[in-house]
Amino acid sequence: MGEGSLEAPIRHQIPWREADFTDAGKLDAELRRVFDICHGCRRCFNLCDSFPRLFDLIDDSESGELDSVASDGFEPIIDACTLCDMCFMTKCPYVPPHEFDLDFPHLMLRVRVKEFGEGKVGAMHRQLTETDRNGKLAGKFSGLANWASRRGNGLTRPLLEKVAGVHRDAELPKYHGRTFDQLPAPGVNRQAPANGRKAALYATCFVNYNNPGIGAAARAVLAQNGVETEIAYPGCCGMPQLEQGDIERVAAGAKSIAADLVRWIDKGHDIIALVPSCALMMKFEWPLIVPDDENVKRLSQAVFDISEYVVDISRNEGLAPGLEPLGGGVSLHFACHARAQNMGAKAEAMLQLIPGAEVGLIERCSGHGGSWGVMRKNFEVALKVGRPAARQSRESGAKFLVSECPLARDHILQGRERLSSDADSDTNVAAYHHPIQLMALAYGLI
Predict the structure, then answer these.
(1) Integer Cα distance of 358 and 336 in angstroms
(2) How far is residue 95 from each of residues 12, 101, 102, 270, measured CA to CA in Å?
(3) Residue 220 contacts by C-beta under 8 Å, 6 or more apart in sequence?
(4) How far apart (Å, rounded) are the C-alpha atoms in residues 436 and 346?
(5) Distance between CA atoms of 174 and 342, rounded to whole angstroms?
């Protein structure tokens, strides 16, 4: 038996339709098998709060081993997993094809699928993850919605905390009345080396409703480089539902969205996702959830992350001229769902195309974890997990702070506030929501 695998990790299809997948006895047996291996290894101790909770639970038991731990004590461990995939991708020596066959995130997903089927996911939590519906509704009253969700609003935030469990101090995304898919297309630079490329931009729910500026910057940079773009947004990728175990809905969405986007592939368009979580879903999670769907399979092989796509242009045709120095260093957070795509640090490679760019890469988790980190019961833990990333960002002294995950960027900023005894002393950083915006800035497009 080997101590660790030297082969590339692989992932199994998720057999969520099989009865054994949610069988209580078999699931508990698998949890115990995996937890025992993790307890003996501990390489993941500093990734998130799941593993410290697991190790403390076992260490504090009567025997100091798993045999004296009751299964009803597992829930806090499962709750703390954000499905970031970092243990599987970067730390665990026992992932498939190793004979231990360990996939911690997908095991936590398996528990959540069971709990969702048993009605254990609260109605309010389910409503918070209805990103398309919430975006459309809040966009119609964006001024009121943003006022109500603003940090420091002593009238509405305590009420939101009580009713929905969202911590009153957590930074929340803003809403826009004019969504990304309503913005006009920029003119295309026909003299650019990459002229002739065509791409469909999968807007994502976040960019479409919460941050159209990311999409506008991406479209402007691509147009500057000769790429004709269209906006495609059939619906949310399903990551919020996957986090809570509603895998049947994720599967249905994957089939529907893939069928829509494949039409663009047939017309010669590349598919570009503007947020790494959505790219991860399309590239890796969807094919494991609906492995027999040909549209899903085709899409998974055709989709690019936006940073990955710009780097691809630079390496094949070359970028259009016009990039100017930013005039300061960049502290770049390497988002977990960008790392999990196993494509390398493409945002770092993209920013290094800017003349004189000084890019410092932060490879620690922000602690946010999608909707997990804003909840009342998780917010302080999330800030603790993200403290190393916040400290590294602050101590870098860089002029710019950016992350491929906009929510992670907000969380790092909140972490920086906690590290400063005087909040006003940490206002000299120019924080952007995505590295593509810095490319647009270097081109003079924003």
Answers:
(1) 22
(2) 10, 5, 5, 32
(3) 186, 440, 443, 445, 446
(4) 11
(5) 30
Using CA of residue 67, residue 72, residue 73, residue 79, what is the dihedral sign?
positive
271 bridge partner residues: 200, 303
Nearest to 306 by CA among 334, 265, 275, 332: 275
Q: Tokens standing for 190?
A: 């026909």
Find residue 303's DSSP bridge partners.
271
Distance CA 146, CA 175 (A): 6
pLDDT tens digits, residue range 55-66? 999 999 999 999
Provide the b/e sequence for 153-166 (b: ≥16 CB within 10 Å): eeeebeebbeeebb
Q: pLDDT tens for residues 36-87? A: 999 999 998 888 899 999 999 999 999 999 999 999 999 999 999 999 998 9
Instruction: Give the distance, in angstroms, between the CA of residue 123 and the centroid of all CA atoms in the same chain.
Output: 23
In whole angstroms, give the CA distance from residue 18 to residue 330.
48
Which residue's structure tokens are 């069928």?
259
Tokens of 186: 């920029």
Distance, in Å, from the CA atom of 180 to the CA atom of 214, rounded to the nearest integer, reads 9
By DSSP bridging, strand 359-362 and strand 198-202 are: unpaired
Following DSSP, what letter does each residue of 72-115 receive, concatenated? GG-HHHHHH-----HIIIII-TT-TTSTT---HHHHHHHHHHHH
Q: Residue 238's closest CA among 265, 205, 272?
A: 205
Left (φ > 0), alpha (ψ -120 to 50) or beta: where does 346 sit? alpha
